[in-house]
From TrEMBL:
InterPro entries: Gram_neg_porin_domain, Porin_dom_sf. Residues 4-110 form the Porin domain. Pfam families: Porin_4. Transmembrane segments: none annotated. Gene3D superfamilies: Porin (2.40.160.10). It comes from Azohydromonas lata. This is Porin. The lineage of its organism: Bacteria, Pseudomonadati, Pseudomonadota, Betaproteobacteria, Burkholderiales.
Length: 133
């Protein structure tokens, strides 16, 4: 479990972050989660964001499967929601050797504006191999 604080000072105001994160290891599963609060004073009326993330990693011999979900909501100084973002991810890895790993990953991200329009929607995937020296 951990806590992080960051305070950025700009000529237009401060941008503050607080984050709480935790992980728990079950016998065959690892669960991770975090919560972050951002207070952005650089915007004239101020704005606040709350972000959540939860994920799970499950090893199966040389393979590991990881699933995750994240959500972020930003509100203006009056408390009106201006951005709603969410995303899901899935990843599978397979250890060929102690230092070489194959991977496949998929991520879907969606960002919606307060006026109901969709600012962004994206699906990405990756396939590859890593080698550590």
């Amino acid at each position: 479990m951990g806590y992080a604080f960051q305070n950025e000072r700009y000529t237009t105001g401060t941008n503050k972050f607080d984050m709480l994160a935790a992980a728990y290891e079950f016998p065959r599963l690892r669960v991770v989660a975090n919560y972050q609060h951002q207070d952005d004073g650089r915007v004239a009326t101020g704005q606040k964001s709350r972000e959540y993330q939860i994920g799970v990693n499950a090893p199966f011999g040389a393979a590991t499967v990881a699933l995750g979900y994240a959500k972020a909501v930003t509100r203006n100084g009056a408390g009106r929601e201006i951005v709603d973002a969410s995303g899901m991810s899935a990843m599978a890895t397979y250890d060929l050797t102690k230092r070489t790993r194959l991977y496949m990953a998929l991520r879907k991200l969606s960002v919606d504006r307060a006026d109901g329009s969709q600012a962004f929607e994206q699906t990405r995937y990756g396939v590859g191999m890593t080698h550590s020296f």
